[in-house]
Amino acid sequence: MRQQRYLSVLFIIIFFSATLIKAQEVEDEREFDYGEKSEKGPKMWGKLKKEWEACNNGEMQSPIDMSHERVRIIQKPDKRHYKLCNATVKNRGHDISLQWHGDAGSVLINGTNYPLQQAHWHSPSEHTVNGRRFDMEMHMVHFNENATNKIVVIGVLYKIGKPDRFLSKLIRNISSMIDKKDEVKNAGMIDPREIKIGSRKYYRYMGSLTVPPCTEGVIWTIKKKVRTVSRAQVKMLREAVHDYAERNGRPLQPKHKRPIYLMAPDDTA
Ligand SMILES: *[C@@H]1O[C@H](CO)[C@@H](O)[C@H](O)[C@H]1NC(C)=O
Ligand SMILES: *[C@@H]1O[C@H](CO)[C@@H](O)[C@H](O)[C@H]1NC(C)=O
Ligand SMILES: *[C@@H]1O[C@H](CO)[C@@H](O)[C@H](O)[C@H]1NC(C)=O
Ligand SMILES: *[C@@H]1O[C@H](CO)[C@@H](O)[C@H](O)[C@H]1NC(C)=O
């Protein structure tokens, strides 16, 4: 009798701990991934959730190839005013992101100010230039809730070469969160001005976020100058994210006749 009761208690414990483990697994499950043939891969994103429909139905999706651009000479280039600000590094599972908390400054585009919120990395690059894909792409995401087009992303392309100084600074923080989805680490005060962005020439077009919900109306700035990152740094970023996102570049999307401008500042002004 006693033994039986003992056994049923034991059974209940085993049963509940098994369902608990299962529940955790479900929670940890990827929401989307990058597998070409996966049922949660880029071709399926728009079907996974109602709020993600734009990923499949949108007509202004990103990334696209930067070719056949029209050159536009501009007198008032975008102005960046970044500031030293407290930041955290987060492993989002599908990428590593650096989030600023407080005023990290902003970019001024055609009279509208867009505060900087976060930066993250994709490898290989998402945007291509004349069909060429690069080894990495960093996105600096800016947001102004009052603007018509609320999101501005500045993209920087990298090819393998010398290490990127900015990533080198974050190496300890990033390598301490390998495979730890949702882990957040305090990175201390990080100055966005230390991100080497490069030349004043850039491509400009209207697109979307490159991950679900694929929100459109994003003002894209892709810097023309290609910078360098070391093989070890790309490897570190890939190891830190989950296996399903080691290669976290979304494939190219239809252009739908959208104009792409190469903005060249008027140096004689
Ligand atoms: C930065 O953020 C961390 C974590 O939120 C906090 O503990 C720390 O006090 C902040 N530092 C400054 C200088 O604001
Ligand atoms: C800049 O803003 C003005 C006024 O809001 C608008 O008329 C113009 O089309 C904008 N220019 C660009 C390039 O977006
Ligand atoms: C948006 O408008 C609100 C209310 O006027 C203001 O407090 C806030 O700073 C504005 N946001 C930006 C990014 O300008
Ligand atoms: C993250 O980076 C900051 C600044 O380099 C450093 O002070 C902190 O100890 C790092 N944290 C971890 C967990 O590596």
TrEMBL record:
Domain named Alpha-carbonic anhydrase is located at 30-264
Q: Name one GO biological process term.
A: one-carbon metabolic process
Protein name per its UniProtKB record: Carbonic anhydrase
Q: Keyword Protein biosynthesis: yes or no? A: no
Name the enzyme group at the top EC level.
Answer: lyase
Q: Name one GO molecular function term.
A: zinc ion binding
Entry's PROSITE patterns?
ALPHA_CA_1, ALPHA_CA_2
Q: What does this protein do?
A: Reversible hydration of carbon dioxide.
Q: Does the keyword Metal-binding apply?
A: yes
UniProt EC number: 4.2.1.1
- Write out the entry's keywords from A to Z: Lyase, Metal-binding, Signal, Zinc
Provide the organism lineage as a comma list.
Eukaryota, Viridiplantae, Streptophyta, Embryophyta, Tracheophyta
PANTHER family reported for this sequence: CARBONIC ANHYDRASE
The secretion signal range is 1-23
A Pfam family reported for this protein in Swiss-Prot or TrEMBL: Carb_anhydrase
> What family is this protein classified in?
Belongs to the alpha-carbonic anhydrase family.
Cofactor(s) this protein cannot do without? Zn(2+)
Q: Which Gene3D superfamilies match?
A: Alpha carbonic anhydrase
Reaction(s) catalysed by this chain, per the record, are:
hydrogencarbonate + H(+) = CO2 + H2O
